[in-house]
Amino acid sequence: MNSSDQGSVRPGQPEAIKAVPVRHPGRWAGALVVAVLAAMLIHALVTNHQFQWDVVRKYLFDSSILHGLGVTLELTALSMLIGVFGGTILAIMRLSPNPVLSGTAWFYIWVFRGTPILVQLLFWNFLGALWPKLSIGVPFGPAFGSESTNKLIPLFVAALLGLGLNEAAYMAEIVRGGIQSVSVGQTEAAHALGMSQSSTMRRIILPQAMRVIIPPTGNETISMLKTTSLVSAISLEELLRAGENIYSRTFQTIPLLVVVSIWYLLMTSILTVVQYYIERHYARGANRILPPTPLQRLRGLFSGRSPRTTTPDVVPGLEGGGHL
Amino acid sequence: MSEPTTTAAAMVRAEGVRKSFGLVEVLKGIDLEVRTGEVFVLVGPSGSGKSTFLRCINHLEKVSGGRLSVDGELVGYRQKGERLYELRDHEVARKRRDIGMVFQHFNLFPHMTALENITEAPVQVRKEGKADARERARALLERVGLSDKAASYPSQLSGGQQQRVAIARALAMKPKLMLFDEPTSALDPELVGEVLDVMRGLAEEGMTMIVVTHEMGFAREVGDALVFMDAGVVVESGHPREVLANPQHERTKAFLSKVL
Questions:
Q1: A195-232, pLDDT tens digit by residue?
Q2: Alpha-carbon distance B187 to B197, whole Å?
C-alpha cells in the first residue's frame, strides 16, 4: 500500500493534501448562544428608557465633565509618575545590602500595601488635624519656617500623595521583580568593564528589567485611572465627582454614570494601545522578529493573504527603522 | 611554584591566594606568576577553582587570604604599613578598566547592538567621544571579522559571533591584561575555531592573556605557560608542550588522558 502511494507522487512534486476538515458543531452552537445573548443585551440597552440616551448625549461633552476628565488624567499621570520613581527607589533600597535601607523599604511597602487606599486618602486629607503646622529645619532642632498643613497640602496634593505613595509600594515590587529577572552575568560583565554600580543599574540592568516591568506597569496605569475615582470621597472634583455633582442636581443618575463610564472606557482603551507599542519598543534585542503592530495585521488581512503568512514578510523590512 | 625571579615584569603575582565560600575552601593557597606578554593557560577539572581564581584577578570574587597583585598593585586592597584597607567601589572599578574579561556565556548586553555593546564602556567609563568610540568599535569589529554585524543584536548572532563581539568589547577598553573564562565551552564545536583564531591573533600582538580552557590544542600551540589545578591547589606547572606531552603528576596524567 505504501509503495503504491509513493508511486502516485511524482518525485520532486508532492501533491497538495485534499482532506475534509474536522467539523466543529460545538463551536457553532456556542457562537449562536452568545449571539442571541448579545442581541438581547443590545435590545435591552436601546429600549430601556431609564438609560436616557438623549441625556447621555447632552452631558457627554459638558464642560464640567470635561474638566473632571482633565483632573482625572492629571491625577493618573502624576500619581503614576510618583509611583514609578518612588517604586524604583524603594526597589533599589530593598535590594540594598544595607539593612537599614532594605528594612525601611520593607516597612514602607508593608504599611502602604497593607491598608486600603481609601483610608490612606482620608488620612492625607485630614493630615491638618494630625499636624496643624508643618515646618522645615534641623531635625529635633530649631525650625527655619513653618506653614499651615491645610495650606501646604490642598485637596489635589492630598489626593496625589494618597494615590502616588500607595502606588509606589506596588511599583516597588514590580520593579524589584524586573531587576531580579536580569541575569547576574550582566552585572558581572558591566563591572568587569569598569562600570560603576549606578551606571550599571541605569544603563544595563534597568533597560533590560523594563521588558518585565512594562506590562504590569501598564496594568497599574489602567487600574490607577479608575482608582482616581476614589478621590471623589474627599470631594476633589474629578470625572466621577463631576458626574455626581450633576446628577445630585438633576437626579439623572444612570445617564450620568453612563457618561462617566464611556469616558473611563475610552481612556483605558487608549492606554491599552499605548501599552502595546511601549512593550514592542522594549522587546528589541529579546525577539528576533518584532511582533506585528495591529495596523500591520490589518493591512495583512486586507491584502488578501492570511495575516500569519504576511507578517514575517512585513516585519523584517520595518525592523531597522522600527526601533530608534 | 618556585620559579626564579625573571627579568620580565610580572603582570599577575599570586602568593598563597585563598578563597572560601562559606565553609568550603575553593582555593587553598595558589602561588603563581604571569609575566607581561605571556599567554598563561589554566587547566583542570571542573570545580578545581580555576575560574574562581580568574575572577579573583579582577575582584569579581574577593580573595580571603594571601596576596594577589596585578601590575604591582594589590587587588581589592590598599596596603599602608602593616594594615590592609578595602578599596572603595569606584577604586575597584578604576582598576577593572584595564583588565578585559571574556565570559563563558558571553554576557553581551542583549538590548544593545553589537556596536553599542562595544562603545558602551569607552563612552560611559572612559568618557570617550561617541564618534571616536564608534569609529574604534567599527575597527574592532573588523578585526574580529564582523564588520557587517555592527547593527545586529546579540540574539541575531551565532554563539561564535557573540563571543567575538565580547572580545571586541573587552578590547575597546585597551586593557593591559585579558582574562578568558572558558571562552569556547558554550560553543558548538564548529564555531570554536573562529574564536580561537581571534585569541591567537591577540597573542601574536603580545597581549598578556590568562586563559581558562579545555582546548589543549590551543594551549600547546599558543600558550607560554600552563598550570594544572585540582581541588584548589596548583598540581603541576611548566611550558604547555612539556606538561601536556610529559605530565609528571598522577592526577595530571589521569586528567589529560581524558581530555586529549
A1: 999 999 999 999 999 888 988 999 999 999 999 999 99
A2: 14
Residues 6+ apart with CB under 8 A from A36: none
pLDDT of residue B138 exceeding 50, the answer is: yes
Across the interface, whether the CB atoms of B93 and A288 are under 8 A apart is answered: no
Of A189, A195, A286, nearest to B93 by CB-CB distance is: A195
The position carrying cell 597583585 is: B69
Contact A203 B99 (CB under 8 A): no
- Count how many domains chain A has: 1
CATH number at residue A178: 1.10.3720.10
pLDDT tens digits, A60-83: 999 999 999 999 999 999 999 999
- For residue A18, is it within any domain? no
- pLDDT of B4 above 80: no
Tens digit of each residue's pLDDT (9 = 90 or more) over A103-121: 999 999 999 999 999 999 9
- The number of C-alpha atoms within 13 Å of A212 and in the hemisphere containing its C-beta is 16
Torsion angle of C-alpha atoms A218, A220, A221, A226, degrees rounded to 10: 140
E strand segments, A35-173: 133-137, 143-148
Average of pLDDT values for A225-249?
Answer: 92
For chain A, the straight-line distance linking the first and the last C-alpha, in angstroms and rounded, comes to 59
Q: Return the C-alpha torsion angle A259, A265, A270, A276, nearest 10.
A: 180
- Using a CB-CB cut-off of 8 Å, the residues of chain A touching B120 are 193, 195, 203
| Residue A110: inside a domain | yes
- Asked if residue A311 belongs to a domain, the reply is no
Q: Residue A124: inside a domain, yes or no?
A: yes
A169: containing domain: 66-135+144-236
CA distances from A3 to A6, A7, A9, A16 (A): 5, 6, 10, 18
Q: Spell out which residues of chain B touch residue A203, defining contact as CB-CB under 8 Å.
A: 120, 124
Give the nearest partner residue to A185 out of B93, B103, B156, using CB atoms: B103
The length of chain A, given as a count of residues: 324
pLDDT digits (tens, 9 = 90+) for A254-286: 999 999 999 999 999 999 999 888 888 777 666
